[in-house]
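I would love for you to help me understand the pair of lines that follows before we discuss the fold together.
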Amino acid sequence: MAVANSARDVGVVIVAAGAGTRASGAAAPELNAPELNAPELKQFRWVGGKPMLLHSVQRFQERPDVAMVVCVLPRAYVGDPPPWLMQADLDRLLISVGGPTRQDSVANGVADLPGEVEIIVVHDAARPLVSAATIDAVIAVARSGRGAVAGLPVVDTLKEVGADGAIARTVERTGLWRAQTPQAFPKAALLRAHDAARRDRVSATDDAALCERIGFPVVVVRGSERAMKITDEADFARADALAPLPE
């Protein structure tokens, strides 16, 4: 991890407010779920030797330039977060409440960042195996005055398919990339993009799209297959296989 900047001017928002309905799991007693027999939240489940959310928190807190990591959780968990979060650096950890949409959750997390933050990184808790090199890359681009998205080029043949399952056309894949997180932006640009989206009542599936919408330049840096998004049950086994062995 190469961090040339000594100032703590990076704020990280980890979005962990989703219900994770496609990845079912039995409730674990140590999670203190607010409802008896409530399903365990995907972002609280273990993968690669620790809870999914804790992977990301600790990875970002390895960086000396990170001023604060804000975990955006479902409202029911904000007052009583999982006890394993106490393994993080508590001086650089805040809990924020999730909103009705991912976009609202990010905005809530951004609002809770300290004022000295100049670079904002947004990351999905469902990508627990993000590498230090990828984080370095997106933050370096943000420091240069642009937005950055981790991503991978599309290698499969793409088909546009109708409602009846019939193929309408083959889509040219040249220049197409799969967007991942983390995504990093100068603070002023991300705030402006979210303000414009609220004003115009526009929603997007990631923060890069909001920045693109206002004409702010965003580039893609190469991510990693290890930073896969854990969506369903099969993904947990794959992530366990990709995770490094515990030290």
About this structure: Residues 197 and 203 are 7 Å apart (CA to CA). The two ends are 18 Å apart (CA to CA).
